[in-house]
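Researcher: Quick test of sequence recovery. Tokens follow.
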């Protein structure tokens, strides 16, 4: 009975698209011409990254102004390196990079990553 008093609200899973290959970057660039894209670079070995991801995923997503891509940089370090090179953004972890028209328009790292801030930045590019 008491467990019902303390049960968690049903979680809505964040609609991530997994970024696992270099080829996907071309698709991502193409998609970013229609709608901004965010790449969330996550390290499975970092407690700050885990905390930031958890906080990000618990946000009230409402009207998502960007397409969210998730990159496990431990499993796909080669893709993470290509992201840094391709978009001219110094590698950090955790990191969120907003792409529009194939170019990095905004990035944040560590505790500076905020769903609300990213969504607000992406809103600027809505057509």
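Model:
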């Amino acid at each position: 009975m008491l467990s019902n008093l303390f049960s968690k609200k049903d979680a809505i899973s964040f609609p991530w698209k997994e970024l696992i290959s270099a080829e996907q970057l071309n698709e991502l660039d193409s998609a970013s011409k229609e709608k901004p894209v965010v790449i969330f670079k996550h390290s499975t070995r970092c407690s700050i990254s885990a905390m930031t991801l958890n906080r990000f995923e618990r946000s009230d997503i409402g009207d998502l102004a960007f397409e969210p891509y998730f990159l496990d940089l431990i499993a796909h370090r080669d893709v993470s390196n290509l992201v840094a090179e391709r978009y001219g953004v110094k590698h950090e972890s955790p990191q969120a990079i907003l792409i529009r028209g194939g170019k990095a328009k905004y990035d944040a790292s560590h505790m500076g990553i905020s769903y609300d801030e990213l969504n607000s930045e992406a809103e600027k590019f809505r057509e």
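The CA atoms of residues 97 and 107 lie 4 Å apart.
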